[in-house]
Amino acid sequence: MKCYFHSHTLENPEQRGLGVVSFTVPELNISFRAKYMGTAIECRYAALLALLEFAEVNPQLFKEKILQIFCDSDELVGQVNLLINCGRGLEPFLNQALAYKKRIPYLLHWIKLRENPAFDPSVFD
């Protein structure tokens, strides 16, 4: 089942600030959006973790399915797929994502921003 997530920081992306995290599961017609305080990469991890938590607490929706998860952050995809290292400050986020991988079968892929259904340009208005 295809799932998508995205995040956007509304302030300086290098500093902790207000962000918006979102995910969508088009096949189930499910969308989620919430505020999150953090850096750009922390917000990206928060969006992924929100999606994984949703899948875990709703197993009946995802029964016997491998989640194909897409995001527009090559940095996060590389870290979760253990292709690149993450900084010490991100290790708790990465460890949570990897712990979910042991409980929920998922594959994480990169997608272009404009092809990501979780991206909502109205957040910028």
Proportion of residues in β-strands = 25-35%
CATH topology-level name: Nucleotidyltransferase, domain 5
SSE pattern: EEEHHEHHE
Principal-axes geometry comes out as: globular
Q: How many beta-strand elements?
A: 5
Structural class: alpha/beta
Determine the oligomeric state from the structure. single chain
Cα(first) to Cα(last) distance is 31 Å
Unreliable stretches covering 5 or more consecutive residues:
none
Main β-sheet, spatial strand arrangement: 3-2-1-4-5
- CATH architecture verdict: 2-Layer Sandwich
Instruction: Tally the structural domains.
Output: 1
Number of separate helices:
4
Return the average pLDDT rounded to an integer: 92
Question: Can you summarize the main beta sheet?
Answer: 5 strands, mixed
Describe the model:
The chain has helices spanning 40-57, 59-62, 74-80, 91-103, and strands at residues 2-9, 17-25, 30-38, 67-71, 106-110. The protein is α/β, with parallel strands linked by helices and 125 residues long. It has one domain (2-124): Ribonuclease H-like superfamily/Ribonuclease H (Nucleotidyltransferase, domain 5). It has a five-stranded mixed beta sheet with strand order 3-2-1-4-5, covered by helices on one side. Strand 1 and strand 2 form a beta hairpin. It is globular and about 40 Å long. The model has no long low-confidence stretch (mean pLDDT 92).
